[in-house]
Write a structure and sequence with these properties.
Blueprint: E1 15-16, E2 22-23, E3 34-39, H1 46-59, E4 64-70, H2 77-91, E5 99-101, H3 111-120, H4 158-168, E6 173-177, H5 182-190, E7 200-204, H6 220-224, H7 226-233, E8 239-242, H8 244-247, H9 254-261, H10 269-278, H11 292-298, E9 303-313, E10 324-327, E11 340-346, H12 348-359
Parallel strand pairs: 3-4, 3-6, 4-5, 6-7, 7-8, 8-11
Antiparallel strand pairs: 1-2, 9-10, 9-11
Helix pairs in contact: 1-2, 4-5, 5-7
InterPro entries: Inosine/uridine_hydrolase_dom, IUNH, Ribo_hydro-like
Protein name: Inosine-uridine nucleoside N-ribohydrolase
Organism: Paraburkholderia megapolitana
Length: 370
Amino acid sequence: MNLKYQILPAIPFMFAACGGGIQTAPPAYTNAPKIIIDSDFNTMGDDGQLFAMTTQLMGQGKVNLLGLTVVTGNDWLLQEEAGALKAVERMGVQNTVGVYGGADYPLQYNVASIRAQQAANPQGYFGAWSRPEPTTQSQLVAPPDGFATSTKLQAQSAADFMIQTIKRYPNQVTILEVGPPTNLATAITKAPEIVPLIKQIVYMGGAMAVPGNANAVGELNWWFDPLAVRTVLQTTIPQSVIPLDVTNTVPLTQTIYNEIVNNPSKQTAVTKVYGTINAGAVDENTNIYDTLTIAYFLDPTYAVQTKSAYLDIDTTSGEDQGHVTVYPDQPAAGASPQKITYVTQFDNNRFFNLYVDLLTRPVPVVTVLQ
């Protein structure tokens, strides 16, 4: 049973004044660009890294993270929620950033087809479908630094939180969509009036001109719930995509790993968990995925090469599930009504400077008045 509880009301950060002492002030992030992270959360893989980076940027007053919504994708919802709750405590933002549980299953799925695709693609990454779904807390795997000790899920569902927040801040909220977009599609279907009120969506998802990492043609996030993807693509919301085409070119190298994990002057709860979770990842040619979205959101010039096209996705069960069709000039029926920008090359050196800096900052998040 997946119970949801109300966490304590949000309270402002405490700001350390440069001249010494502690004083209360309006949070530095109050007027910063507003975002919601919609995530198939993992402890310190790409989703967990993205969350750590974003909360550090929040401490710097560069973004205002309104909430973390969770959806089944990398793992089953119950396991992901446990990781997300621990993450807000690890970063010290449990009284500022709420965690909202969302969809446990895609809008549309065929288990027999999924099993057939797994058999046909033994090297594919199928996320939650690769393991049994936990049904009790006792079946969950604790993060390396343990489960959350006091933080609970917000009572409100992820979709309802999105609806309420977008209406509260019309034309101000960006969705960083780094999991299957089931929660967002649910919100749009339930309250279509929010469509013109969403500022933009930045995805990590899809494979435009490269093979998939789930089945032969589908990238996991978009393969997992292609009907949800199509539901959102068909809206008029401004949308940008960080697809496999570019994430395949941004690898986690041993040098970057060492800068995060083995710097003796920058040991934190994040670097320790990062080291545990990603030990050996370099040998497996691990690429950087979801974290590119926050860099692109901060400054789209991190993308040094982009393309723009009308996009559609195959929602049928089978070996074409999740296949993205790109229409450079004219859209076919069912494709996005407007051209969508997708990134094909990133400024890796500039990105990794940001990546290493944010993942090695003090934890809990420290906000200093300038």
